[in-house]
Design a protein that fits this description.
Radius of gyration: 16 Å
Number of domains: 1
CATH topology: Rossmann fold
Structural class: alpha/beta
CATH architecture: 3-Layer(aba) Sandwich
Strand order of the largest sheet: 3-2-1-4-5
Oligomer: single chain
Order of helices and strands: EHHEHHHEHHEE
Helix content: 55-70%
CATH class: Alpha Beta
CATH superfamily: 5'-nuclease
Distance between the termini: 16 Å
Strand content: 5-15%
Largest sheet: 5 strands, parallel
Amino acid sequence: MICLDTNIIYNFLFETELTSASEKVIREAFIEGMAIPMIVYNELLYTTGAKIARIKYGVRGKYSFRKHIAKHGFPEEAIEKVNGFIRDFKITILRDYQDPDEPVKTIKTYRLAPNDAQIALTCKHHGINTILTFDEDFKRVPWLRVVP
């Protein structure tokens, strides 16, 4: 099983300079099976929703996006896009590892952002040792092999 980070999926879903690299590693990982921690699912919904709101409605910034959600609801297209990807690629959604002490230790030891520490720990506790990500920070985590 291979873990996908938010940025790999985002660049697959939206045309960017990293789209072809995302497509390549996702298609190669498909054979081994792919998973995302719940925190990645949440990040992906948010970033996809914000991108669609920016494209379709000119919404810019997180506070404007929050106002847009309050007035119009969360963009249904974002939910469909994310869930369609998960369904089409048979992605397993993992429960995040829950321990109030270990994330802080991981943040400090490996100099990670809180969400990245949560992703790394979820991989560790689910026996996953490979992550597809463009985030160089995961290279500091000894139990993860970073691809590409």
